[in-house]
Amino acid sequence: MSMIRDLRAVVRPSRVSLRKDTGAYDTTRDPGTPSAVVDCAVYRDGARVDFGTSLTPQEAMRQVRRDGGFVWIGLHEPTEAEFAGIAGEFGLHPLAVEDAVQAHQRPKLERYDDSLFTVFKTIHYVEHDRLTGDSEVVETGEVMCFTGRDFFITVRHGGQGSLRALRHRLQDDPELLAKGPSAVLHAIADHVVDGYIAVADAVQDDIDEVETEVFSPGRKGGVSRGVDSARIYQLKREVLEFKRAVSPLLRPMQLLSERPMRLIDPDIQKYFRDVADHLARVQEQVLGFDELLNSILQANLAQASVAQNEDMRKITAWAAIIAVPTMVCGVYGMNFTYMPELHWKYGYPAIMGVTVVICLGIHRTLKRNGWL
Q1: Quick one: DSSP state of residue 221?
Q2: Does the CA dihedral 159-161-164-165 come out positive or negative?
Q3: How far is Cα of residue 44 from the mean position of the Cα atoms in its chain?
Q4: Closest by CA position to 142, among listed 40, 234, 70, 248
Q5: 159 — alpha (psi -120 to 50), left (phi > 0) or beta?
Q6: Under DSSP, is residue 17 helix (H, G, I), strand (E, B) or coil?
Q7: DSSP letters of 307-328?
Q8: Biggest distance spanned by C-alpha atoms of the chain
Q9: For the chain, which terminal residue's Cβ has fewer other Cβ atoms within 10 angstroms, N or C?
Q10: How many CB atoms lie within 10 A of CB 48?
């Protein structure tokens, strides 16, 4: 059981915020291998077998069938023609092969006679100096995994989510790799979910920033309110993309952790529960993001409506004040010969004084009632 207790330390490195993760997918390929094959290796008794030269998938499988162990093949965006030979060699189901080549699949787990087909959505946080109405917050990719008795095949789509470092960490623990392809499947699932956790932390920072600005007491003007609404809506779209990756994966992880499967080692299966638990917590967090953004958006729109009402009250108040001199000037602008105070020496200053007094009285009343 000591090997199992070390499982997390091997497949789960320290969680670093994806804000600092600048690693891109490494598409360096071994010479002599098909263009889509990133790595192809045979593992026997938990150790990578060195044949002194690169192996094709067909050669690797022949070595496994002759001497035992399992082969792990990593591919990056293979075409149908590139994948056809591998699919035929390993007896992969045509429907799963079609999904792996076409990509854009929903996270899922499908069982075929001699293999398991698992789809993971990888999430990468996109760095930005400031969130705007068209900022991309999360970028998605896909990892498809074929798990067999003596083979493990990963098919990746997208420019991020490299598994090279994960492969190296697994190779440093032969006792774990000796458990076979199911150990690799668990490591990838745990790696993907850990990525969700890091992205959730980064998205939380963006939501906190928007929330602070929306409820900041110093916000003024209609321009900033318009920008806030666009930013909130864009953040909601990105959270929805995040949710599409997380929520469908929960059921497959529960199946892997609860239902006995011939291709999953019993010692490894129990650790899928840990992955499922972390995934459930991320799902709750993402659902909370969606609800919080709805509240922030509604509050922002309500604030904009209140501010518009306040603007209209101020306009109405000043219009009421200006109406007094307008009326007086209108009356004394009429061309009648006989009008009160028309020829009085103090008529003009008296009328102006009365007008000012009335305007000041209206202004004071409106000010006291909060209209100005």
Answers
A1: S
A2: positive
A3: 38
A4: 248
A5: alpha
A6: coil
A7: HHHHHHHHHHHHHHHHHHHHHH
A8: 124
A9: N
A10: 17
Query: Rounded CA gap, 279 and 345, in Å?
Result: 89
The ranges of the chain with pLDDT < 70 are 1-35, 132-134, 161, 217-228, 306, 335-338
CA distances from 246 to 14, 186, 195, 239, 253 (A): 21, 16, 11, 10, 11
Total residue length of the chain: 372
Are the C-beta atoms of 159 and 25 separated by less than 8 Å? yes
Type of residue found at 7: L
CA proximity to 166, closest of 177, 179, 150, 178 = 177
Query: What is the residue-wise DSSP string for 50-83?
Result: --SS---HHHHHHHHHHH--EEEEEEES--HHHH
> From residue 272, how far is each of 46, 185, 281 by CA, in Å?
20, 10, 14
Taking alpha carbons only, the member of 214, 193, 159 closest to residue 286 is: 193
Tokens found for residue 310: 């306040």
pLDDT for 219 equals: 54
Residue 145 to residue 75: CA distance in whole angstroms: 10
